[in-house]
């Protein structure tokens, strides 16, 4: 098994040094977390499914001209990505009332919003990812007004495309989280979509029954988490023929 230098380990993924300068290997774990890591667990096969789902969605977005860090999938649990400078802002796009939005405003889950709402959160586990405004982002130097314009434009474009894609397979895209990074090419910089897009960071409901097909099943102890992720992959036509199977990560170089 290849020995690679570990760059970073997050809650759901591990980043390793890539085979070429400016690249990283993104490894998808089966670990599941919720409520700022206060709830943890393991969902067998989740990493395999999220790798495949994220590959599929990132590729589709790349096909319509949305720049991403994704290069290609390497195996069942790993993909090659471009190394980017992550902007410490999580962008949440909401189409339907759910989760924290329902709690904050005392609204019923499932209520359709009159238009999509975009929210920003500071990417900090230690601070529980507090909600922030554009004023915070620009004042603290996390992104420029021009960066934010580009991020907002890309986020709404991603929402339009993914909403239609999921609608075509009978799934409602309730809300989702995006992360962006700065990709440097010599002295040129551009903003690209980074991280992943999967049932880990999207709320996905069946159009007919409102059955949850995402990580809310883990958050709320509903059971059937792996089966829900498999159902999303199945509808997208990308479930591995043999089903999710375990694959060990690369040995870590100390």
Description:
The chain has 254 residues and is of the alpha+beta class. The chain has helices spanning 46-63, 99-105, 134-139, 145-167, 216-219, 225-236, and strands at residues 3-9, 13-17, 23-28, 31-34, 39-42, 70-73, 78-82, 85-86, 89-96, 112-122, 131-132, 171-185, 188-194, 202-206, 251-253. Strands 8, 9, 10, 11, 12, 13 and 14 form a seven-stranded antiparallel β-sheet that branches. Strands 6-7-3-2-1-15 form a six-stranded mixed β-sheet. The two termini are 15 Å apart.
- Which percent bin holds the helix content? 25-40%
CATH architecture of the largest domain: 2-Layer Sandwich
**How large, in whole angstroms, is the Cα Rg?**
18 Å
Tally of extended strands?
Answer: 15
Provide the CATH superfamily of the largest domain. Answer: ATP-grasp fold, B domain
Number of domains: 2
Main sheet makeup:
7 strands, antiparallel
Number of helices: 6
Average pLDDT rating: 92
Topology-level CATH name of the largest domain? D-amino Acid Aminotransferase, Chain A, domain 1
Spatial gap, N to C terminus: 15 Å
Uncertain segments: 249-254
């Amino acid at each position: 098994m290849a020995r690679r230098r570990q760059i970073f380990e997050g809650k759901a993924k591990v980043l390793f040094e890539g085979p070429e300068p400016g690249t990283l290997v993104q490894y998808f774990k089966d670990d599941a977390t919720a409520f700022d890591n206060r709830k943890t667990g393991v969902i067998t096969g989740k990493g395999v499914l999220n790798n495949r789902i994220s590959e599929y969605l990132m590729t589709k977005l790349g096909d319509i001209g949305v720049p991403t860090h994704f290069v290609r999938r390497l195996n069942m649990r790993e993909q090659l990505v471009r190394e980017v400078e992550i902007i410490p802002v999580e962008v949440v796009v909401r189409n339907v009332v759910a989760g924290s939005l329902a709690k904050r405003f005392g609204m019923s889950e499932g209520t359709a919003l009159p238009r999509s709402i975009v929210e920003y959160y500071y990417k900090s586990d230690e601070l529980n990812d507090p909600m922030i405004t554009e004023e915070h982002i620009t004042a603290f130097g996390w992104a420029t007004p021009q960066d934010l314009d580009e991020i907002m434009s890309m986020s709404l474009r991603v929402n339009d495309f993914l909403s239609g894609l999921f609608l075509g397979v009978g799934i409602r895209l309730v809300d989702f989280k995006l992360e962006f990074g700065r990709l440097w090419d010599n002295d040129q910089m551009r903003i690209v979509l980074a991280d992943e897009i999967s049932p880990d960071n999207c709320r996905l409901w069946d159009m007919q029954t409102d059955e949850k097909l995402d990580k809310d099943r883990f958050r709320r102890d509903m059971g059937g988490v792996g089966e829900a992720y498999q159902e999303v992959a199945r509808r997208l036509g990308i479930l591995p023929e043999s089903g999710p199977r375990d694959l060990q990560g690369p040995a870590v170089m100390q």
